[in-house]
Amino acid sequence: MIPAIEIKHVHKCFGAVHALRNINLEIPIGEFFGLLGPNGAGKTTLINILAGLTLSNSGSAKVMGHDVVTDYREARHALGVVPQELVFDPFFTVREILSIQSGYYGLKNNNLWIEEILHYLDLADKANINMRALSGGMKRRVLVAQALVHKPPVIVLDEPTAGVDVELRQALWRFIKRLNYNGHTIVLTTHYLDEAEELCSRVAMLKQGEVVALDSTKNLISNIAGCSIQLRLSPDKLPAALQSTMISYAEGSYILSVKDYTQIEGVLTALRVAQVRVLEMQLLRPHLEEAFIKIMNDVENQEPA
Amino acid sequence: MIGFYTLFRKEVLRFWKVGFQTIGSPMLTTLLYLLIFSHVLERHVQIYPGVEYTVFLIPGLVMMAMLQNAFANSSSSLIQSKVTGNIVFVLLSPLSYLEVFLAYVLASVARGLLVGLGFYLVTLIFFIVPLSSFLWVFLFTLMGNALLGSLGVVAGIWAEKFDELAAFQNFFILPLTFLSGVFYTVHSLPSFWRNLSYLNPFFYMIDGFRYGFFGISEIPPHFSFMVVTTFFLTISWLALRMLKTGYRLRH
Predict the structure, then answer these.
(1) Within a domain: residue B108?
(2) From B185's CA, which of A46, A198, A273, B139 has a CA 20 to 30 Å away?
(3) CA separation, residue A159 to residues A32, A182, A287, B120 (Å)
(4) Closest A-chain CA to B16
(5) Does residue B21 belong to the interface with chain A, where contact is any CB pair within 8 Å?
(6) Which chain B residue's Cα is nearest to A56?
């Protein structure tokens, strides 16, 4: 089966800046994929290459099997992009914008679907209001709606929740999850790693234009993040033997890192030897954020000085 | 086809929604030119035998207004979309570069036509303007507006700031339109200036267009039309090339 997105050996330079180095990525149809990385890692550049807004220096990118340069019309039909910037056309109302956007994709009578999008994005009562008069959150919803007018099989969201309130964030994710459930492939960039962890089944991490990690979210967390335990002790003093494992201490509770849960045995032994009693112990589930920080730091350390 | 039509319609709506500024105001400006120049020069100048100076002035002013507005439409729409960023909606869409080009140019033609026709109809209330050949009037209207609309696409893509576009408009388009023989015939100029005028494509548009009204011109209308068409094809080729390669649009 053809993948939803296929990126091969993509390089991109802006002047002297090497924005993307040899990117290879394949995203199967139906996946909820996360593209993570610090600012300037190249996430938006990669998305722009997929969308045809940026032209790569070498390599190829395909959406649903259509090359984004040679077969751009088909590729763009298959793709819906929610841009990061809050851009809008000040001359039109929400409904006019959506009907115009439908027309660009060759759709004439798209009103039923437009009504449905307006409903799910909670925009129905704003449909006849000019874009200029909308708040930032509402403009963001319209951007999402615009990306969906042509029911693209692949939807790319570039930081859709940046600066968005909790209510919209939740409504947005409910809607996107529904689309994913109906078979749409979703590619997401975000700086909120808890969102990525909850939503994305697979994740690529970018740093300085390179893919530094690519795996299922589950594997990344369990292989790289490690585990941690939280302890309350009596007396409130960590034995010297365990000092090196301590991550943090606050208000009587210690957080220690362990490679895996079998190491807990060793921790307990050390405490017993030092005659420290355990008042409370909790196993902390590792998060994607820990894996992310660790991977980004590892890459840093590997770099030649 | 739907894609092209949608973009064309959007571009027309864009200027229509601010019609006072895009149609009303240039019509008024042109009427003021007519009022002032005809008042000052009516008794002193007669260019074509048996044609009042004011009546001589009308076709040239119609053409000048059309050309300036056709240029203003595509260029200002593009620069606004680029600066505010909403050009992405066009760039993300599957519209072909030819569709984008035609939509912008034809919307420019529509605006030029509305301004020119509006002004012309107002003058008909006060003056009797002959119409010698509708065909030439039509052909020069179409080609002139299309040329400037297409030049507007080039300028709108090339300019990265409003300031750059304003420079293009004020230091290039405006002098060329004013010095094209709208207010005089280049026949009356000293030979150096006359020869210089022959290098100005706007001169051929005015001259050929005027022929359609009075049946008199400095240059045979076929030749003028060929010159204007050649310029149109050249500028269109450039605009299409820019759109196809994504010059200053896709980075």
Answers:
(1) yes
(2) B139
(3) 14, 22, 20, 53
(4) A91
(5) no
(6) B251
pLDDT of residue A225: 62
Give the Cα-Cα-Cα angle A137, A198, A27 (nearest 5 degrees): 95
User: Is A15 within 8 Å of chain B by CB?
Assistant: no
**Rg of chain B over CA atoms, in angstroms?**
18
**A130 DSSP 8-state letter:** B
Q: What are phi and psi of A73, to 5 degrees?
A: -70, -45
Q: Minimal CA–CA distance to A130: which of B18, B78, B95, B83?
A: B18
Chain A contact for B247 (CB, 8 A cutoff): no
Partners of B88 on chain A (C-beta within 8 Å) are 53, 83, 87
Chain B CB contacts of A88 under 8 Å are: 84, 86
Check the CA dihedral A194-A200-A201-A206 and report its sign. negative
Check if A192 contacts B (Cβ < 8 Å): no
pLDDT value, residue A61: 96
- pLDDT above 50 (res A305): no
Looking at the partner chain, which of B9, B10, B84 has a beta carbon nearest the beta carbon of A87?
B84
Chain B residue numbers touching A104 (CB-CB < 8 A) = 3, 6-7, 89-90, 93-95
- Distance set, CA B215 to CA B50, B53, B75, B144, B180 (Å): 13, 16, 33, 19, 19
Give B249 to chain A, closest Cα distance, Å. Answer: 8
pLDDT band at A293 (very low <50, low <70, confident <90, very high): confident
CB contact under 8 A, A105 and B251: no
- pLDDT > 90? residue A216: no
The CA distance from B89 to the nearest CA of chain A, in Å, is 7
What mean pLDDT do residues B211-239 have? 96
Q: Has residue B211 been placed in a domain?
A: yes
User: Span B113-131, mean pLDDT?
Assistant: 94
Report CB contact under 8 Å: B89, A101.
yes
**B21 is a domain residue:** no
Task: State the Cα–Cα distance between residues A69 and B11, nearest whole angstrom.
Answer: 26
Decide if A136 contacts A86 (C-beta within 8 A): yes
pLDDT in tens, B192-221: 888 888 999 999 999 999 999 999 999 999
Tell me the average pLDDT across B77-95: 95
How many other CB atoms sit within 10 Å of the CB of residue A264?
Answer: 15
Number of domains in chain B: 1
Could you tell me if A120 and A60 are in contact, meaning their C-beta atoms sit under 8 angstroms apart? no
ipTM: 0.90
Tens-place pLDDT, residues A171-182? 889 999 999 999
Does the residue B20 lie in any domain? no
For residue B239, the one-letter residue type is A
Domain range enclosing B171: 2-13+27-245
List the single residue in A with minimal CA-CA distance to B89.
Answer: A101
Place of tokens 């001589």: B56
Give the pLDDT score at B14: 95
